[in-house]
Specification:
10-stranded antiparallel beta sheet; 1 helix; mainly beta; 226 residues; 6% helix
């Protein structure tokens, strides 16, 4: 079963790969603390509860643009101490990060993506502390680049994905992805691609209603950057 330590392990791997590059990574961080007062922390229409919260935290970013390792990680971690013990204290983390290791330049890459956020347990209920949970999606795998001809280039990808939610057990899953892509750069701003993807999804808690499945997708994409 997936654990919250996935988030820490993903960030640790990002930090571990950065020193491999020929240029130094740029790590920035800000420590902060705040005091928050709400006269209706549960956002209800009757019997509102007033709550004061102490919120220390850290905001950080990591940027690495080396020839071997490229990384872009930004995140925020805070500890919400609900004074008075009406609610349990929480550690909340948001993170969006990508680390790419060029194992063989322009031929073989190893890529790690990690996305963490705080989401509601029930989207139809109020955004109360008891209705919040930590989620995390981790993806890692190799990408092989190869030439095709006629202006096209190819990519073959393998990915392992792990999805985790603190309370919603039906969200937890293990996924495998195999993809083959043909890409053509039409001009400096426009890109067209043809994609074939095969997925295998296995849920960790089948008794929560999840059913394992396979899926195959064929699609094309046109991207224009203005």
């Amino acid at each position: 079963m997936c654990r919250p330590t996935q988030l820490a392990s993903g960030l640790a791997l990002a930090l571990a790969l950065a020193p491999l590059a020929s240029t130094a990574a740029e790590l920035n961080y800000t420590l902060y603390t705040g005091l928050e007062r709400s006269d209706n922390i549960q956002l209800v229409s009757t019997n509102p509860i007033s709550q004061t919260s102490l919120i220390p935290g850290i905001h950080f970013s990591l940027v690495q643009q080396g020839s071997t390792v490229q990384a872009n990680v930004i995140g925020d971690m805070q500890y919400r101490d609900y004074l008075g013990s009406r609610f349990s204290s929480q550690t909340q983390t948001s993170l969006a990060g990508t680390v790419n290791w060029s194992v063989l330049p322009q031929r073989l890459d190893l890529t790690l993506d990690d996305y963490a956020s705080v989401q509601p347990v029930d989207y139809l209920a109020s955004d109360a502390p008891s209705n919040q949970q930590q989620t995390n999606v981790l993806s890692i795998g190799p990408t092989l680049h190869f030439g095709v001809g006629n202006g096209f280039r190819g990519q073959a990808e393998l990915r392992y994905l792990n999805s985790y939610a603190q309370k919603t057990q039906s969200f937890n899953s293990q996924r495998g992805l195999a993809a083959l892509r043909l890409l053509r750069q039409l001009n400096p701003t426009d890109l067209i691609s043809f994609n074939a993807e095969q997925r295998r999804v296995v849920f960790n808690n089948r008794d929560q209603g999840g059913a394992d499945y396979n899926s195959t997708e064929l699609y094309s994409r046109y991207v224009s950057k203005l």
